[in-house]
Design a protein that fits this description.
Blueprint: H1 2-32, H2 35-38, H3 43-61, H4 79-83, H5 100-111, H6 117-145, H7 152-169
Helix pairs in contact: 1-3, 3-6, 3-7, 6-7
Length: 208
């Protein structure tokens, strides 16, 4: 039952991360070409709202880099393959069905990794989270400058901060799956050293 709930919420995050990015891009173009104004949506709401949706979508996507069952790396980015993800490390499957083609495709994309990919992938993920945080603060500053905190933009900005904070809190050690936020402050994530397994983000993982 617990595994079913874990798989269910993983699939929900896959769907949400994709929909938020698509809706954000659609809202941006709707505001840019004047459709949002015809629908009664202020231009500021369309632009800042689209930015909040896209940031939220990428923040949720940042939580899909590890297997929800064993913490192993997931190097897939295709939302369809993520929805039917089958972990080659622990054998658990997120998808309801076990399509043989998808399982073969997932195993092929997940197992063939270079020796130092753990460190490189971890650092890319941390840089992505930092970039999302910086983008969020820039949006907050722009909202403050244009005095839009009292409108819909302020609400969307607050909502978009939730998945970003969750991506920071759920960041795990790429080797043992330990919670990084419980060991290291956010400004030291790029130089993370795991106190449990000894993983270091500053050098290649020579233990593999």
């Amino acid at each position: 039952m617990k595994e079913d709930r874990t798989a269910f919420w993983f699939r929900i995050r896959v769907i949400l991360s994709t929909l938020l990015v698509l809706l954000g891009a659609g809202l941006f173009f709707a505001g840019y070409y004047g459709y949002a104004k015809k629908w009664g949506i202020p231009i500021e709401v369309s632009f800042f709202g689209s930015g909040g949706m896209i940031i939220a979508g990428f923040a949720i996507r940042a939580t899909l880099f590890h297997c929800p069952f064993c913490g192993a790396h997931i190097y897939l980015r295709n939302p369809v393959l993520l929805y039917f993800y089958s972990c080659p490390s622990c054998g658990h499957s997120v998808g309801k069905g076990k399509a043989s083609y998808l399982n073969r495709r997932l195993s092929t994309n997940s197992v063939h990794e270079s020796k130092h990919s753990n460190v490189a992938h971890y650092r890319r993920k941390v840089i992505t989270i930092i970039a999302l945080l910086i983008s969020w603060f820039i949006c907050a500053i722009l909202l403050y400058i244009f005095n839009l905190f009292n409108g819909y933009c302020g609400i969307l900005l607050i909502i978009s901060s939730i998945p970003i904070l969750l991506s920071v809190w759920t960041l795990r050690c790429p080797k043992c799956g330990a919670w990084i936020a419980k060991q290291t402050p956010i400004w030291e994530f790029l130089h993370y050293n795991c106190k449990i397994c000894g993983f270091s983000a500053d050098e290649s993982d020579k233990r593999e």
